[in-house]
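Protein in question filed below.

…
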Amino acid sequence: MQRRAILSWLALSAASCVPTTALPAEANGESDELLVLPEHLRFIRALQAVWAYDEAGAPALALSPNDSAYEAILRRVKDLRGGPAVSRYELVAYYRHAMFAAEAFLSNAVLPAGIYTYRNALSPVLRQEQPFAREKLCAIDGDDVSVEVRAEHLALLRRMNVRMGDDGGLDMGPGVDGKRPYGDRSYYYGDMAEALHLEPEGAVRDDDARSRALTDEQKGRLDRLHHEMQPVLQVLLANGELRPTRFRRPQTLPVTGLRHIPFGPWTPVPVEQ
């Protein structure tokens, strides 16, 4: 399943999308400023990490992976938001703000190592499509999934390239870059090995006599770790602690004929600012 397919679960028709420019000018993630409130953390805890089969594959976040219907997504948003009844426009605005908060959460939340158990919310069919379940990388007992979060996982969490796919309205969602999940190289094994201080033990490389290649055994180990990052991400969503509450994107992407578009990771704003 392509990453676009994951995001399409959240899609609205063009007529029902709320334009980004119509949203209030505040620290809601639509510009280079983002404020994360306790209500957004409640939303983040409800998100599901679903494997997106794009390039090397990587986890993406979805609010309603088992039901892609537009009305089902909005009902879920309304339940999580709580409070008095609001318009569909306000629900979409809230959803977008909370998804930007989830993007910041993935890059900045803190999680201790340890053994965690979470309640699987994916349908049986969808769960079996996930690499961690298909390859039996975690202990699964009914709907309970047990995960041991080790130092290796935490090192990879710190290196994750988090991206936001955003086509407007509800057609948005954060996830890990499927092509370059842990660095700048499309050969992601290299970035993983670097993050884990893993020395290649294979043959001398043809393109660099001073370097060795990774063995098949080493690449198999890295593949398993990469696939384990999906349940680890679910643990992070459920148990991670986000200490800062205000964030800023430090860079903008110039687009010919348009305004500069904020991009890059959300970074905490010092309290004194």
User: Anything to note?
Assistant: The first strand starts at residue 33 and ends at 35. The first helix runs from residue 3 to 8. Residues 3-268 form one domain.
